[in-house]
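Deviations from the work plan: none for this task. Representative record:
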Amino acid sequence: QKEVEQDPGPLSVPEGAIVSLNCTYSNSAFQYFMWYRQYSRKGPELLMYTYSSGNKEDGRFTAQVDKSSKYISLFIRDSQPSDSATYLCAMRDLYSGAGSYQLTFGKGTKLSVIP
Amino acid sequence: DTEVTQTPKHLVMGMTNKKSLKCEQHMGHRAMYWYKQKAKKPPELMFVYSYEKLSINESVPSRFSPECPNSSLLNLHLHALQPEDSALYLCASSQDEARNEAFFGQGTRLTVV
């Protein structure tokens, strides 16, 4: 079983729709959960990160973490064509000193928002 | 300035060539990273530099040689690469290894012929 599972899509929605992107994971040590957006041929851009369980909202984006189910979600409200990109979840455990850095990515979900 | 600048944007090199990828940031970040990303795959960590010292080498072949000349610059020296090394090479930086807010550059798209 892979550490982080993410449906690669592609996911196609009409403009204005609510988009739900999800990842599941198996490593219970993960404490920080991140969502990156990557446009074609560009580097990833950090959208949001959350610590432990709970919700975090930033404009049209809401990140949710359910550690008991090992499940994280990113919701995009009022989706726009400019949201068309690949969305990568990523997670890491608590930093424990030099050389312990570790960030595990999901495979990414390709999203297309159709005008 | 929240930019990580990578040069060149594109690079085509032969298997016997030596080339270098460059990465620069002026955010005062003390952790810098090299990632490799193949098409439709997530980024894979290659190296981590923390306070200009190599902190992590993820068992990367010696034909990839990182260098951190100062706190703002990170290089990746390439020698005798294979066609399967063709990928997008991403540089990232963060305030330090413990921070989650990492900023990525646009990447160098490398093709080995």
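Chain A touches chain B at residues 8, 32, 34, 41-46, 49, 88, 90, 92, 95, 98-103, 105-108 (CB under 8 Å).
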